[in-house]
Design brief:
Rossmann fold; alpha/beta; 323 residues
Length: 323
């Protein structure tokens, strides 16, 4: 039985957001009307420092430091998740890729989770503001990943073997996080990956999606297809450079995935789990029955429960890799 709060959010999403993704024509309109990045909320602003990256387009990268240890526990207005700043963790960092269907900038909900991640882990969180479709495509991501990792290494460690990096992301950002992990395969700096409702297959060809789509209150294949096609650019939608579920899943660090069953991305999470196990990669999937896309970012009991588990998992990942 899902919570009444979850049912309320599902109703809101169906009425307020689903119309924008209900048809291909509306998806095409969204492609030309990407939302600009939301600024960090006031309580977080003083902890954010911006860096430029030496890659084409010079995308921004924000470093969000943990709150001072003496800070009292805070309750975010959207999630009512309480996090107490933990002890500072040296030579460790989280890199978080925000979602937004590859066309929208970072949202307020992302900033709140990023602040929670910094406080829970005691490590800084790096937030790449990557180039978005239609002006940019997925092929640009790998140069960005290399630049981010090198900056994190210089800032937090004294060499590639001295810093621990945990990759995370939601939705479109979840796809980028997994692509980054595949790109960095075997890199000693990479210790874990956390994915929230990741977009794993841009072709949306999994036949099981048809069974889930009627219950998804937010997303539809028709409406999201133009956005995914724009991000793929000249690549096939199933090219492993943009659809990580088709890439090599061996030799990766442990992966944690959080997904709801009322989400058209959910069927591909099941495929990812199976393929990771076949490849010998450790993967843990947490499923929220009846929850929609990116439920960890939403103000529901299910979202708060999995948010707490997510924070603990990233904290354990950085701590367990400590040398």
């Amino acid at each position: 039985m899902t919570s009444w709060q979850n049912r309320g959010v599902v109703t809101y999403l169906r009425l307020a957001l689903h119309p924008a993704t209900a048809t291909r024509a509306r998806g095409l309109r969204s492609l030309t009307r990407g939302k600009p990045p939301a600024p960090p909320p006031a309580p977080l602003r003083a902890r954010v420092r911006r860096h430029a990256l030496p890659v084409p387009g010079r995308p921004a990268l924000d470093r969000v430091r943990p709150a001072p240890r003496a800070t009292t526990p805070t309750t975010t207005p959207t999630t009512t998740t309480t996090t107490t700043p933990g002890p500072s963790v040296p030579r460790a960092a989280v890199v978080y890729f925000h979602g937004g269907a590859f066309v929208h900038g970072i949202a307020r909900q992302h900033w709140r989770l990023i602040g929670d991640l910094a406080d829970a882990t005691g490590a800084p969180v790096y937030v790449p503001h990557y180039g978005r479709a239609p002006q940019h495509t997925g092929e640009e991501v790998f140069a960005l990943v290399d630049a981010v990792v090198e900056l994190v290494t210089r800032r937090e460690g004294d060499g590639p073997a001295s810093v621990r990096i945990h990759l995370a992301g939601d939705s479109a950002g979840g796809a980028i996080a997994l692509l980054a992990a595949q790109h960095l395969r075997g890199d000693p700096r990479l210790v874990g990956v956390t994915l929230i409702s990741p977009a794993l297959d841009l072709s949306q060809s999994n036949p099981a999606i048809a069974e889930v789509e009627p219950s998804d209150p937010w997303l539809s294949r028709a409406g999201t297809a133009p956005l995914l096609e724009a991000w793929a650019g000249d690549l096939d939608l199933q090219d492993p450079r943009v659809s990580p579920v088709f890439g090599d899943l061996s030799g990766l660090p442990p992966i944690q995935v959080y997904s709801g069953t009322r989400d058209i991305c959910w069927p591909d999470v099941a495929v990812l789990e199976r393929r990771c196990r076949e490849a010998g990669t450790d993967i843990t999937v947490q499923v929220a029955e009846g929850s929609p896309h990116v439920h960890v970012l939403l103000p529901t009991p299910e979202g708060r429960r999995d948010r707490v588990a997510l924070l603990a998992g990233v904290q354990a990942s950085l701590g367990s890799a400590r040398g």
